[in-house]
Amino acid sequence: MKGFVRECTEFSLCGLACLLCPMQVGGYCPGCGGGAGNQSCAIARCSLEQGGPEFCRECTSYPCARYDEFDAADSFVPHSRRAADLARAGEMGLDAWLAQLRQKRAILDELLADWNDGRRKSLYCAAAYLLELEALRRVMDAPAAQSDLAAGPAKEKAQAAAALLQAEAERSGISLKLNKRKG
Q1: Does the N-terminal or the C-terminal CB of the chain have fewer CB atoms within 10 Å?
Q2: Burial of 50 per CB tally in 10 Å (0-12, 13-18, 19+)
């Protein structure tokens, strides 16, 4: 969006973790306010009108009507954690929150590089986004311990990683499917 620039492009104005988005992972979007390729956004436009707060939680009107129905459907990343992640970033401090997102991104990059059959990017991104860091670490420890699997075909490795991620998600009561907009 023209004129909308932010220093923090890894975590969006509204609370989405751009660093874990398939669009940014694939190099198609630089993240919220990152320049060319940045997606047009009504919330970014609102930020400009409100004097440019770094995050919506800093606005005196937050949460506002722009957030009505915001979480009803996902875009490239799940929206269900957006408000909680904004609050968490405020509680932990932005640097600590970004450090945690970067650790999740490192795990996501490893999944995509070593455990992908070319069809799991969305699942891996959703899992990195929704699962807690410790759950992701448990998943990564499990396949690494299976040396015969590590040397196996990409399809088998991807199926094993996907099954481990799904199991962790089920244990946490989390669905790794994106909610599509209805009608």
Answers
A1: C
A2: middle
